[in-house]
Amino acid sequence: MQTLTFDNQFTAQLPADPVEDNHRRQISQALYSRVQPAEVSAPSLVAYSPEAAALLGLSPADCETEAFLGAMSGNQLLPGMDPHATCYGGHQFGNWAGQLGDGRAINLGEVAVADQHWMLQLKGAGPTPYSRSADGLAVLRSSVREFLCSEAMFHLGVPTTRALSLVTTGEGVVRDMLYDGNPETEPGAVVCRMSSSFVRFGHFQMLTARGEETLLKQFTDFVIRREFPHLCGSDEMDREVYLSWFNEVCERTADLIVHWMRVGFVHGVMNTDNMSILGETIDYGPYGWLEDFDPNWTPNTTDAGNRRYRYGQQPAIGQWNLMQLANAILPLVGDPKPLEEMLSAFAKVYQTRWEHMLASKLGLKNHDAALLDELFALLTHAETDMTVFFRLLANINLEDTQPHVGLRGAYYRDDQYNDDLNTHTQSWLSQYRQTLQSQGVDPQQRAAAMNAANPKYVLRNYLAQLAIDDAEAGDYALVNTLLDVLRRPYDEQPEYEQYAALRPEWARTRVGCSMLSCSS
Ligand code: AMP
Ligand code: MG
Question: What is the tally of structural domains in the chain?
């Protein structure tokens, strides 16, 4: 295997917990604890991402070596690795939860490639000082979901942590999937994730909660220098740098959520410990893809009561989470006023970018509020598949006498495809046609422009579940096929047409397809 060069700036520059053994504990005056991944009995490679590997300079042949499997299962450290778990806190479902930390994530080290660096992180590689009452492990089903979705999101153009590899460990892991008193032994797995940085809002919150302001400054300066170098010169950092940095975090978060809304992604657990400081999608747990366009939908059964993290609420939660980050960095800025202004600006920035994105989803040059209001009314009139709807819309000829017929394939229920719906659709389509005309949109170019904003292939919840069912039976073909399909989500792929179909009826209520818990 090609040698990887590590440049571990996080552990070199930030203070470590002095305790070395691996028992659960609260720490102070430190950002991380060194910890070794647990040894596993029978590691086996399920899949790897050639694109993620290429970022490290690794070839497909490298990814099929024993050395790669050893490293990605946690059994064999590579020279230069410095494994550690980091300490963060967070607000979970709106409440401050205190110290959380990497309970089952172990950072291996930062691979230096040209002017970039990639932190490699194993998820599910055994307990750490932050595992609290849990085991530090991950099961195959949630690991398949994380692996596939990370790479799918990248190819969709959505900011995300990457997934390099997925291995099974040969160990059994006990989980009570629905928290209903029926624990079962499931296959254990480890995903190797990659990002420039896995720092979360919760890292800053933890330091402020502990009252460690000197360390807060040291850590923030480190993060800005390492991940936002364009914001700082060689001088000591001051209030202006912190403010422009917070502003950039707000903007990246707004962009991230615009993308989620564009593709119909619901994260499911937008706790502040699951918010990346880089504005990447991080921690794929009980996430889901909107099928029926229902702004109130959440895949996460653990959140079924309040639906705090439902599709339509994600922008507001993004802002709430940024407010917690603002509170955490207040000691560095002193005056809350400019932070408050940036938080208010977030709503406007988000709205403007979302309107711009909606215009591109419809192939328009400019946003049209009235047209959009009517579109949302139409999308909720009948059970309508968001992804299929936009792809069909791109392809219908608006000059036809009955253009609404072209949308037939987006509806889930025959009984709802009636005169009422058709009248509604026709009226919206004629409004749409007029708007396109008044904006001078070239009908020849409309479809291509729309198809670049509206994916044909997303990781539908039931597709992930089918891949999991096979993988649990030892067959990894579908995991790899989906990885391949999702590489070109905007292209027509006639050989893979079946993966663009509406969710089948059996998946409507099946656990794993429409309902997921935090158990993973
Ligand atoms: P999550 O809701 O998955 O983002 O996890 C919240 C916190 O619980 C984080 O600190 C995780 O590292 C930790 N955690 C989740 N699952 C486990 C597990 N199986 N073992 C140890 N810690 C875990
Ligand atoms: Mg998490």
Answer: 3
> 3-class SS at 377?
helix
User: What's the CA gap between 415 and 213, in Å, rounded?
Assistant: 62
Are residues 240 and 293 located together in one domain of the fold? Answer: yes
The pLDDT of 10-33, averaged and rounded, is: 98
Direct distance between the N- and C-terminal alpha carbons of the chain, in angstroms, rounded to an integer: 31
Residues 377-394 have a mean pLDDT of: 98
Residues 259, 353: Cα–Cα separation, whole Å? 10
For the Cβ of 146 lying below 6 angstroms from any atom of ligand 1, the answer is: no
Residues in the chain: 520
Task: Please give the pLDDT value at position 234.
Answer: 81
Please write the tens of the pLDDT for every residue from 205-260: 999 999 999 999 999 999 999 999 999 988 899 999 999 999 999 999 999 999 99
The residue segments making up the domain with residue 311 are 235-360
Looking at the CA of 300, name the nearest ligand.
1
| Tokens of residue 416, six digits | 């709802």
Report the distance separating Cα 132 and Cα 90, nearest Å: 14
Over residues 258-305, the pLDDT tens digits come to 999 999 999 999 999 999 999 999 999 999 999 999 999 999 999 999
Nearest ligand for residue 100 CA: 1
CB 101 less than 6 A from any atom of ligand 1 = yes
Residues 6+ apart with CB under 8 A from 494: none
- Cβ(198)–Cβ(150) below 8 Å: no
Examine the domain organization and report whether 15 and 122 are in the same domain: yes
Instruction: Please list the residues that pair with 107 across neighbouring strands.
Output: 84, 121
Question: Is the domain of 117 the same as that of 195?
Answer: yes
For residue 433, the Cα-to-chain-centroid distance in whole angstroms is: 35
Q: For a substitution probing ligand 1, which of 273, 275, 276, 301 has the most ligand atoms within 8 Å of its CB?
A: 273
Same domain, 300 and 189: no
Q: Provide CB contacts within 8 A for 270, sequence distance 6+.
A: 308, 309, 314, 317, 318, 321
Would you say the CB of residue 99 lies under 6 angstroms from ligand 1? no
Q: Is-above-0.90 flag for pTM?
A: yes
335 is an active site residue: no
